[in-house]
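We modelled the chain as a single entity of 120 amino acids. Its sequence is:
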Amino acid sequence: MDAPKYISSASTRHVRLSTQKARLVADLIRKRLVGEALTILRYNAKAKPAQILEKTLRSAVANAQQKNAGIDVDSLVIGKIVVNQGPAWKRIRPAPQGRAYRIQKQTSHVHVYLEERTGR
């Protein structure tokens, strides 16, 4: 089995977003046509992850058009979408009796890979 040929890719790194929440939205658009995925993201209830994934997806489409001017955007499919954990921001919250509680604010790395599909 040969590896799929990705037309283009885009990544967004160090996004102030939990990886788990972003993966829930990423699972909705995996292996879908780009137009269909953009519609799903536009009307998704999880606004922050959907907004970030939409921005990354639009960047991947723009990269595909930049690489190949004659490409048909309607035939592009999300070949692979990966949401990995980024570095956590460590903060301290005051606690009773002079103690401090640690807060970790999660970040994520989002990678979108597009491939071209002919036919339906």
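As a brief sanity check on the tokenised model: The mean pLDDT is 93. Helices lie at 19-29, 34-42, 47-67.
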